[in-house]
Each structure stands twice: as structure tokens, then as C-alpha cells.
Amino acid sequence: MSTTDQTARDTQDADEQVNGVPTGEDRVAIPGMSQEGETLQEGRNQAGEPEIRHTEHGDVSGVPDSSRAGRFTSYDVADFPPLSPKLEDWRFTPVKRLRGLDDAALQGPAPAVSVSGDDAVEVTSVGRDDSRVGSAGIPEDRVSANAWSAFREATVISIPRDAQVAEPVIVTFTGESEEPAAQHVVVDAGTNSKALVVLRHVGTAVLSQNVEFSVGDGANLTVVSLQEWTDDSVHASSQQAKLGRDATFKHVLVSLGGDLVRVTPSTRFTAPGGDVAMYGLTFVDDGQHLESRLFVDHSVPRCRSRVNYKSALQGENAHGVWVGDVLIRAEAEGTDTYELNRNLILNDGPRMDSVPNLEIETGLIAGAGHASTTGQLDDEHLYYLMSRGIPEDQARRLVVRGFLFEIIQQVGVEALEEQLRASLEDELARTEN
Amino acid sequence: MSTLEIKDLHASVILDDESTKPILKGVDLTINSGEVHAIMGPNGSGKSTLASTIAGHPKYQVDSGSVTLDGQDVLAMSVDERARAGLFLAMQYPVEIPGVTTSNFLRSAKTAIDGEAPSLRTWTKDVRSAMDKLKIDNDMLQRNVNEGFSGGEKKRHEILQLEMLKPKIALLDETDSGLDVDALKIVSEGVNRALQEDNTGIMLITHYTRILRYITPQFVHVFSDGRVVDQGGSELADRLEDEGYDRYVRAAAK
């Protein structure tokens, strides 16, 4: 790549060091160790345990906001400070373009929900008091908490215990209003079930959305979240997953359309043996702000996570943001994690911010690493193809499509993959022709 | 019958800070169809620069001299035009290209070189047959170009392309490096097939003489400090094996 290339692969062995801190067999837990060498001591009690904050609702929240990955959670908007670029969580987001999602009443109509797919999967609309609501996540930011306060009914997509759902479940959210709105969705995958759920967002919306994925013990859930909004839409989506013992979760995020789209997928493990793969593809055009901030919280032993996010950017003021926070807590021995972010700048004008954060609090892990690159098309790739007679424009097309389609291949629904490839062709036609 | 003619070629490498450093200092060389020319010499003598300059790598600039293929000015052509004119470079370090399958790549290259898509009926069969001879697993076709290939697989993949694209003149840049003796034999057999079946002219760049046990050169050129300092028949290679390059390196240093 022509600009930056930072790669780290830290595999833990006896006497190994991570960022200069010994992490070998003497089992030194490293409170507060992060990629930047930040300290987590603030907000911890004398035993080094995180202090538990209680909100006025009595809800228990997690590690206070003293590091990037250990984040504060609350159902109450008032517990979060007003948005400002000074806050780490919002430093890249053009807050003014949120159109009130952070403090408006969110009384607009939520996008209409329609479902196609297997009859085995039950889709219902439930009240706030349903036990499945809130089962997988507590809001992690002000915009998410604001939606939590505002939604009236939640859509619950329920995959029964042991069900092996062959046909993909396609849930389409069609927005028809620019009035700020809130929406709540729960995907509840029962014990040992297997299913693929597509959340497809189309139309026009100004929406703060909370999506919960509760993945039961031994369950295998794939979720594809597509953001194909019109160019004037604003969408903040907190997508939180909670995995049971030996659960497998694959999350594929594809953001193409919208003025501002900020998706914050989080994965938390509740028992050993969990496996998460998080994929992302964003195509950022001039004037768009597409942001993905993900968090993987390794809080129990022997879980695995893989992250692979890609962006392509073109045009003036095209702004992409990727933040990947991975936290390996002291108790998460045997963790195996790797995160990767690759960004392709197609012409002059775009801006990409890519921030991998890996915080490791135990040395007893199987592996942890990250890599991030941002650059233009690799000259060596073009040279290789051209040296075989392939003309430059065709070589470019091959390399760009190769870069983008790798993530599309993860969707797993052929008809949908075809549509997405066609959408990407439309996007690419703007710079190639 | 084709001829690659290199006359008094001077070329420089373009460094990261955009400054240039002269490497080739007047190379004269003529390669005809069906001939094998071994280019031998110590590391840093400019052998790979010669190959990359002829192929048109953007990191090298020609300062003076000429390169022609059957009278056509190679230096005026873009990289892809050179390949379509009949030149092929088997790279020393082939790059990985994510997301582009080997199958798609080979077909695209063949289509570009021939000016028409290969016949569906025979193409797959031909590729598989060539892969079998090079002892390459068929699943390589579904893998991305060079991605996750071992060093030996990358070199065999280069020779697979040589056999499929059938160039007039092939430049093999240290194709023998990093190969064990079994792989070296397999790769050499592929080169010999290109020689016999397609009458390809071969420029074989190597540091060591061991590949010359399997591919017999008619001509051996010794490279030092950017030019040919000695040449002869295959007996020169035997002498180099015994004596090494010390004699030439000392002469260049004077």
C-alpha cells in the first residue's frame, strides 16, 4: 500500500512481551494496558477491580469510561454527557448532522418492518416489558439511550430452540419519514438453533436504532445488516450481541447509502467457547459520513474473535471511520483474537480514520493482533496483472472488485450477493467512467 | 523466429525519495527463439534490474540505449503492451492479489494476450493438464492469486503462466531461488517444455549454477556492476561453479 501499514501480531508465549510489558508464564495481569499504554487505574478500586456504577434506575453498568474499550452503559440519556467532538466516542462524528437523534424526543414513525422467510421463525411486535427486550445489551452511548427511552414497541425475531432454519430470514425496514424516530429490534436465537437473518434498511429515515442479538448456548446465528438508505438519511444503530456457551455469531455489516450512518456493533461473551466473526464493507461517496465502531469484549476464557472490515472511498468530503476496540480482560485466558481494517482510497478528496485498539489484561492468551492499512490501489498489484498483458483499466477493475467482493462473499445469500455486487458496480461507475 | 535485442542499455532505479541511482551501465544482449541465455553474477550486479527494466517496472527508468522485439521498440510500450507483444517475466517475488482468483486471472491474461477469449472447451483441460505436470493442486484455481501460496507454489504458478501464455521471449528472474531439488526439477521441466513446444527464447537469471544442470544454456553471460563482463558457452558456468564470482568482483572494484 502506498501510505501507511501498521501490522502487529502478538502471539503469547512464555517470556513474551506485548508492547514492552512482560506477558509470560508468570501470569501478570496488566490492569490498564492498552495499545497506547494508557492506564485504566482511574475508576478502579484498590483491588484493581472495576468500580460498578449504578444509574438512578438501579441498573448495573460496566467498566467506567476510562479507556476506549471499557465503556460506560446506561438506559438513561441523562447519564451521558451532551455530544461533543471532545468525547472520544464522538470525535469523528459530525454531530450537527445527527438531526437531533441525541436529544430530540424521537416521536417520528419508525421504519415499517416486513419479513420474508421461513415460517419456523416467529416475528412479533411486543411491548417494552417483554423479557427479551434488554436481554443482550444496555445502551453504550447517548443516541442509543435516547432511542431506548423513546421506543414504544419492539420487533422480536425469534428462532426456536433447536430449529435449523434453511431459508434466510429477510427483514426489511422501510423508512418513509425524516422525523427523528426510535426503533428497537431483538433477534433471539434459541439454544442450538441455526439461522441467517438479514436486516435490510431502505428508504428515507432519521433513526436511532437499538438491535439486540441474543445467541443461545450452541446456537449459530448469522446476521447481515445492510444500510441502503437514500442520500439524505441519518442512521445510528447500536447492534449488541450476547453469546452463550459455544455459540457462533457472524455479523456482516454493509453500509452504502445515507448522509450519516454510524453503526456500533458490540459482542459480549457470557461463557467459554464463543466464536464471533465480524465483517464490514462500507462504500463512502462524496459528502457521506459512514462510521463503524465495533467492540469485542473478551470477559470469559477461551473465546475467539475475528474482525475484517473494509472501506472504499471516493469523492470530496467522503469520510469513513473505523474504530475497532477489542478488550481482553484478566479473566479471559485462552482468548484468540485478530482484527483487520483495510481501506481503499479511489481518488482525491476522501478522508479515512482507522483506529484499532487492543487492550490486553492477561498474558495467558492464544493470540491477539491487529492490522490497519489505508491507501490507494497497490502499484505492485497493477504491475503484476499488466505484466501478463491485462490492460491497466481492466487490471484496476479486477483489483478493486477483488478488494470489495471478499466481504460480499460472506453474506451467504446468492441473490442478495448479486444485488450488492450490482450496487457496488453502480458506485464504481461514478469514478471509473 | 523472434529476436529480443538489447543495445547499450543504461537504466537507473528510482528510489523512495525520487532520486535515481544508475544500475545498468551499457548492456548488449541478443536472444533468439529457442535459445537459452543464462545471466549470472553476484548479488547487486543488476541482473534483476535488467529483467524488470525490460518488463517495464515503474521503479526503473531507462537513461539510454534500446530494447527491441522483432524490430519493435519495447521501451515505447506500456507494461501490458510489452506482454502482448510477446514478452514474459517470471517474477522473483510474485505479489499476492486479494479477491482475484487464479482461474479468473489466468483466463483474463490469456484473453488479453491472444486478443480473444480461449475456447471454453479446451481451456480448462489445458490448464489442468499443465498444472498436473507442474504438480500443482487443482484447488489453486479457486484460490486468490498467490495468496497464501508457499514459495515453491508461487514459482510453479509463474511457470504455469509461462506455459499457458506462450510468450516469444521469457525472462526468468531467479526462478530457482527458494526451491528444493524436487521443485527445481519440476520447474525446469516446465521451462524445457516451453523451449521445445513453443520455441520460446529464454533469459535465465540466476545466482547459482544448480538450475543449469536441468536447463542447458547455449550462452552464459557474466554480469558485474551493471554490464556483461564475460561470456561464453555452458563451460563458463562450470568454471563459475568452481571459482565463484570473486575474479569479476575484484576486476569491477579496480
TrEMBL record, chain A:
Q: Where is the composition biased (Basic and acidic residues)?
A: 50-59
Start and end residues of each SUF system FeS cluster assembly SufBD core domain: 177-403
Q: Indicate the secretion signal residues.
A: none
Q: Where is this region: Disordered?
A: 1-67
Instruction: Supply the SUPFAM superfamilies for this chain.
Output: Stabilizer of iron transporter SufD (SSF101960)
One BP term from GO: iron-sulfur cluster assembly
What family is reported? Belongs to the iron-sulfur cluster assembly SufBD family.
Name of the protein in its database record:
Fe-S cluster assembly protein SufD
Give the source lineage, highest ranks first.
Bacteria, Bacillati, Actinomycetota, Actinomycetes, Micrococcales
- The gene it comes from is sufD
UniProtKB/TrEMBL annotation, chain B:
PROSITE patterns given in the database record: ABC_TRANSPORTER_2
Q: Where is the ABC transporter domain?
A: 4-249
Recorded GO MF terms = ATP binding; ATP hydrolysis activity
| Keyword Nuclease attributed | no
Keyword line: ATP-binding, Nucleotide-binding
Gene3D superfamilies xref list: P-loop containing nucleotide triphosphate hydrolases (3.40.50.300)
InterPro entries the record matches: AAA+_ATPase, ABC_transporter-like_ATP-bd, FeS-cluster_ATPase_SufC, P-loop_NTPase
Keyword DNA damage among record annotations: no
Q: Which family does it belong to?
A: Belongs to the ABC transporter superfamily. Ycf16 family.
This protein is called Fe-S cluster assembly ATPase SufC
Instruction: Give the species.
Output: Kocuria tytonis
The gene coding this protein: sufC
